[in-house]
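User:
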Amino acid sequence: MALAWLVAAVAVITPAGTAQAADGASPPPMADGFGLTQVGTATGSPTNFHLTVTTPEVSGEHPIKIILPKGYYDNPDRRYPVMYFLHGSPDNPTQQNYPALTTSDSMITVIPNGGARGWYANWLNQKTVLGAQNWMNFHLNQVIPFIDANLRTVATKKGRAVAGVSMGGFGAFHYAQVRPDLFSETASLSGDIDFSVKSMDLRLAVVASLIDAESVRCGAVAGCDPSKSPYRPAVDSDAAFGSPYPVFNADWRWNEVDPSQNMKKLVNADVGVSIYVGNGGGNPLDLEFWLEGAAKHVKNSMDALGMDYYYVNYGDGSAWGEHCNGGHNAGCWEQDLRDLIPRLERSFAS
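Assistant: Predicted structure:
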């Protein structure tokens, strides 16, 4: 069966399961495995493409975007470290078109689907209308070995980083804390990295995405169509992490996954930590205003633990790139990535 697949793919698979594009115009072939089954064919160029997979861990179909260095096919013996980049809510991998992500010639970028509100977690309730929601299993147990088997990666802790925007910032820190053996660097870009009672606003933002508060809000606004909410259908407020309310320790699961209370898991774990955040221009209506407080809580925790870290609070963004206004937006995240990627490259090369 493997021989037939090779012939049909019109491609060359180099040793150790590393894919090479053969025609110079198409994405490289990728072999199913680790519980992932591809649907259809990959779309894009040989170095910037996305494929779609299914998995028993999460219901539905899931795009995975892959960005390879421009010289990936020039040297079949060269291996590359990987940055796993986790998107925010309610985005998906195909929307992650930051120019900075295509600038590296020395690392691979992989952007797996995290769902509109998957929250990079194995949900407590697997019997909602959404079906299976084991996002952490999908990413850590399936996507990573799938990428290592199909591409020329440096398949070690030293060769991996995990970074994310907003919801993905939580995911990046959560994954690094759960599996510090997998990643040498983690970075939060405007991340929801404090789920403690100090940041109940962020807890309630998660709950809002679960119960589809957007449809309720939209239904009260003239001309707004609730059916277009990205958070449909609604599920119960406790579906992902249990009760969010700090009564009789009912919220213990939130505390268990809260990055701000678990930074100690990275002490002596040889994981570099980076945080980027703005202040929303001082406007409480901008989510970044609240995320600044969350970032400060994590910084305080790291200071108390005596940890080394890289921390950038660019405030209103006036000195942080041409398109950053300090808000929760792509203009600031592009500049974050332009600062982060060279730092990751240096770390990988060290």
